[in-house]
Amino acid sequence: MTVYLKNIFNDVGNVTLFASKFFKQVFTPPYEFKEFIKQCYVIGYKSIPLVAITGFIMGLVLTLQSRPTLSKFGAESWLPGMVALSLIREIAPVITALICAGKISSGIGAELGAMKVTEQIDAMEVAAINPFKYLVVTRILATTLMIPLLVILADGIGMMGGFIGINMHGDISFYRYLAKVFDSLAFIDIVPATIKTFFFGFFIGLIGCYKGYNAENGTASVGQAANSAVVTASLSIFIIDMLAVQITDLFY
User: Per the UniProt record, which residue ranges are transmembrane (predicted)?
Assistant: First the structure.
């Protein structure tokens, strides 16, 4: 147990040092804009189909599962607002971030781990290229920017799924549905949920890069880096979400 706790604190300390190096490098020229745009494309654009399908299913299933309970109390008119609040405040950000942790963080960990094992990172240093700035900074910035955009996409498509779910057992116009959705939303519902997605994205990129960049020698370490990146990033998402809920609760 003591050794296990020691390893946890060592990892936390090393990740903190890794993050401090990122913040130092991100403001220091030269800036790798081309690689940053490429990572935004790989991380953001190529994740759209998976996020869109998941968002639609979340909205549809949440609506169909909630309708019978609300109908018992004659409160079916609350369904659009309930679906919108559930998706925007909690379900869409967390589920989308978990999907991205599995897809993106593992991909980054495996990619950088393979580069580390095959000594490509060492070769970049010999060629007078800063591998940390080129490989790590660009990927963390891309995840920090793209994850919130993917969550917003999941919110919108999820509410479309909710609209279809409602009309499976009823008849409501799209304009009326949107009116009920926006009537139920407030500033305090949207902004904190959006802010925490930036932290989700940052830690997904940070942990994936840390695990891959510090992979040990041997091909087995590549798989270990990818697996460890997913588990650690997913755990960090739940911890950040728990803290965000506690902070947001102070304003209600």
Answer: 43-64, 140-166, 186-213, 225-247
